[in-house]
Design brief:
This protein has about 140 residues and is an all-alpha fold. The chain has 9 helices and no strands. It is globular, with a radius of gyration of 14 Å.
């Protein structure tokens, strides 16, 4: 499984370290790495982080995301990591995130990742997929 910490440029996947990272703010480089791995446009990423595309454009290299956006980015990385583990490759994970799913009432997972409830629903479907439970 791709470690979330490595995806975000952190040294540890321990929960307290990830909480600290979210509180201190994820830097622009880590944000861009997650954007690239998920194959997101700047507009899509901004929407998922509840920021404007202009805010992301204006970020300097050493800037950090606000705490709420950092926590959201952390959750996006966790979903991507889980999808990669369940499906086997980065390419399949990206495709799955954009595919309408009956288990998500015809929504694609990416559409739901802007809220905590949506993230949990997508993680539940991924868990079922991992363990071969029909949904």
């Amino acid at each position: 499984m791709m470690e979330v910490a490595k995806l975000l440029g952190n040294s540890s996947d321990r929960p307290l370290d990830l909480i600290r990272l979210a509180r201190e703010g994820v830097d622009k480089g880590a944000m861009l790495q997650v954007q690239e791995y998920l194959g997101l446009s700047q507009k899509e990423l901004a929407q998922l982080l509840h920021l404007t595309p202009r805010t992301l454009q204006r970020m300097q290299d050493n800037d950090k995301l606000p705490s709420a956006a950092s926590g959201q980015l952390l959750e996006l990385a966790r979903v991507y990591s889980q999808a990669t583990e369940a499906l086997g490759t980065n390419t399949l994970a990206r495709q799955w995130l954009r595919q309408p799913l009956t288990a998500l009432d015809g929504n694609n997972p990416l559409q739901l990742l802007d809220t905590p409830v949506g993230i949990q629903w997508v993680k539940t479907v991924l868990g079922r997929l991992t363990y071969g439970v029909y949904s």
